[in-house]
Amino acid sequence: GIDKNAFSKSIEQAAEGAMNENIVYTHLLLFANKNDKIFRYRDPDTREVDAVIVNRKAKTLRLIEVKSKSKIDDKRVFRNEAKHLYDNAVLKNIGIDTSFTITRVVVYSGENREIPHAKGNLKLANIEEFLCRQGDL
Fold first, then answer.
1. 3-state SS class at 37
2. Is pLDDT above 90 for 134?
3. Strand locations in 1-136, DSSP E?
4. Which of 7, 20, 39, 66 has the most CB atoms less than 10 A away?
């Protein structure tokens, strides 16, 4: 049979994840710059990014992934949580070239910090602080 506790916990985690993604996305829409285009990215190859903010005038791109976890493993993050944030196919599909300044962020329930990466550091942003800050990333 089905382990009801495990099943219930997985439903809870999925609901929390979807809720956090929607809260962050709505927050971004509310405080967007008038030149920002904000959307969710999904493609046929199952790549997805929870929030994409493109400002073609300022030539900036912000890629945001929302996770319902408090710990991110520095060694595994680029193969897991942030993998699509560094995927060249995603950038190509969005229509971004090397002239854009790219900011990559994982919003989660842990501490604010940065993880170095050759293509640009990954910002880890605490969800509560992220939502309290109306400023730019």
1. strand
2. no
3. 37-42, 48-55, 60-66, 101-108, 113-115, 122-126
4. 66
Residue 73 has pLDDT above 60, yes or no: yes
pLDDT of residue 137: 61
Amino acid (one-letter) located at 26: T
Distance CA 63, CA 51 (A): 6
SS3 31: coil
Token output for 62: 């912000």
C-alpha 116/C-alpha 119 separation (Å) is: 9
Residue 84 to residue 1: CA distance in whole angstroms: 36
Task: Tell whether the model's pLDDT for residue 10 goes beyond 70.
Answer: yes
* Close Cβ partners of 130 (under 8 Å, ≥ 6 residues apart): 24, 27, 107
Q: What is the mean pLDDT of residues 26-41?
A: 94
